[in-house]
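Lecture notes, part 5. Sequence design as translation. It can be helpful to think of inverse folding as translation between two languages: the language of shapes and the language of residues. The source text, in C-alpha cells, appears below.
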C-alpha cells in the first residue's frame, strides 16, 4: 500500500483498494480523483491546473486517469524484477509504465487537504517530473512490449 501520511488519502478506502488484489482481479489498484465519485475538494485554480497538466503529460504512457495521485495498492510479487528508479514521489507512474499491465483498477477517492506537513511541490520537483516523464517515454518506446522482469 502506498499513500500519503498527511491525511490527504482517506484510510477508509483501504479495503476497496486492497480487495481487488486479494480477489486476483487486479495486480494493482490506483486511487483516482478524476473518475466518477472521485474529487479534489476545494483546490484553488492553480492547483487544479497543475494537477490536470501533470496527468495530461502522461497520456502517451498510461490510460490511468490520475497517474499522480500517489495512492496505490500493489501485489508485492508484482514488483519483483522491476527496475524502478522513480524521481520524487511519483512511483505509481513508474510502476505502471514499467510493469505494462492491463490488470489495473482505478478506485475513486476525494483528495483531502493535508492535515500535517507542507507541500513538496516546487519548481525543482516540477522540472524533475518532466525529466522523469522523458525517461519513461524513452523506456516505453525502446523496450519490448512484454512485461519487463
Amino acid at each position: 500500500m502506498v499513500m500519503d501520511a498527511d491525511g490527504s488519502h482517506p484510510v477508509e478506502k483501504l479495503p476497496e483498494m486492497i480487495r481487488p488484489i486479494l480477489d486476483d482481479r487486479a495486480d494493482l489498484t490506483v486511487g483516482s480523483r478524476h473518475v466518477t465519485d472521485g474529487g479534489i475538494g476545494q483546490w484553488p485554480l492553480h492547483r487544479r491546473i497543475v494537477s490536470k497538466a501533470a496527468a495530461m503529460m502522461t497520456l502517451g504512457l498510461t490510460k490511468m486517469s490520475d497517474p499522480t495521485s500517489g495512492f496505490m495498492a500493489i501485489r508485492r510479487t508484482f514488483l519483483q524484477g522491476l527496475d524502478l528508479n522513480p524521481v520524487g514521489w511519483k512511483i505509481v507512474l513508474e510502476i505502471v509504465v514499467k510493469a505494462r499491465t492491463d490488470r489495473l483498477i482505478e478506485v475513486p477517492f476525494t483528495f483531502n487537504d493535508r492535515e500535517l506537513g507542507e507541500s513538496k511541490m516546487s519548481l525543482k520537483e516540477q522540472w524533475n517530473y518532466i525529466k522523469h516523464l522523458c525517461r519513461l517515454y524513452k523506456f516505453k518506446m525502446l523496450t519490448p512490449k512484454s512485461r519487463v522482469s
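The translated text above is only one of many valid answers, since several sequences can fold into similar shapes. The helical segments are 14-22, 45-56, 76-79, 91-99, 123-142.
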